[in-house]
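EI: anyone free to look at a 501-residue chain?
SC: sure, send it
EI:
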Amino acid sequence: MLLDTQENLVIDREIAHFFDSQSKYTYEEYLNKAIQHVKSFLDRDQFYSGDFVSDFTSKQHLITPSPTTKLDIDEALQEIKELYLDHTIAFHNPDYVAHLNCPVLLPALVGDLIASSVNTAVETWDQSTSATLIEQEMIRWICSKMELPDTSDGVFTSGGTQSNFMALLLARDDYAFRHFGLNLKENGWSDVVSKFRFFCSEKAHFSIKKNAALMGMGYNAVIPVAVDNKMKMKPDALVQAIEKEKQAGNIPVAIVATAGTTDFGSFDPIDTIAKIAKEYDIWFHVDGAYGGSYVLTETHRHLLNGIGDADSVTIDFHKTMFQPVCSSAFLVRDTKNFKYVSYYADYLNPLEHRDETCPNLIEKSIQTTRRFDALKLWFTLKMTGAKTIGSFLEKVHYLALDLYHSIKDDPFFEIVHQPELSTLVFRFITPGVDNDTMHDRINLYIKNTLFKSGQASVASTKFDDKIYLKFTLLNPKSTISDLLNIIQMIKDTGLQHKTNN
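SC: here you go
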């Protein structure tokens, strides 16, 4: 049935919203207007408005699209300003020190804009052409920085959790194939796999256990290994854990070392752990989501010694290379191991059409459709440079050390560790009071009060079952004065709670 004239007119008007040669001036107009609203976001004084969930639910009429009313660009931007830009968390604000969210570099934003506009999908050569080569070059660059061999390869991923998932999957399937002749990809589960065990520090990222569960192996397939007083995995405890599992009839298949734990920024002794993995002939993965980028620094490069012996590596550029999310990579020592995730579909990448000169990146990815995330890193390296990025990372490390030395003798604070990277874990205490329950309550009050007021965002964590506060420093434009200002807010809020209670 043909559309009536009125409906055709509406479609003709709305079809102008498509990105093509006819809409290029509208595209320019929309972007220019959007930029003005983003600039207003940058002009905000506070990292957050302090609004509650109830404040947003009262704006449900802005959240829900109307089935009848259509907005023009100015109206839509005004609504998103009221709903989002005036309230969203500003990671560039010096009062935001909570999580692993970095401020982003302008060259990366240019790359992100181009990638989003052109909308290249990088799964196959005939969809991406030269974008494939750019991603491959970014992978070669980071592999060389990690001193991985010429056989190494990698793929961009959505983040550290996905990269760690791929590491455990490849480790499991490789061990099953090499030692038992099992092709898990083709034939599925085998009872012997229930005996497979992964080993990681007790301070490793939660994604290790989560991914083991997603793979059907359960949390208990991950064996936590004790750490020393610097939160680093103990090599002797690792060996003991491996031997204990073997005696119990279980099968060690992989070790995960962490380069930069989430809470403490600690580096496991990678070189020593690599030797242990080699001795037991098991997969060695390094989760460098946080600390991997420190391979670009003079201060921390030695802590990554031995990473060139890893079978796989996780690195998040959107944590410590100042990239917009998502920008992460999973690296493997031998590209042949991607066979455990490859699949050849007749309509997409048939095996008989495989051509090494025109690679299909889908053969290395557990995602199918995937955006051109490598472009923003390419712009960053071209315009900012790896050496400069390394200097930014060194600056936030020294900033964490300055903060540590500034408060370590303050009787109102108890510090867990001297920063090895750019995090500091500490808690507010009332001098002379030995009551952890009270300290826990006060520190949670401090965290929540500062956030809800829009004054500062500080994270919390647990250490020895006690609640601590945590600064995660990723902004090289922050100063020690900025941080001491937050410290004073913490102290004032803690004293206020004590007075009121």
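EI: The chain has three domains: 17-90, 127-364, 387-500.
SC: 👍
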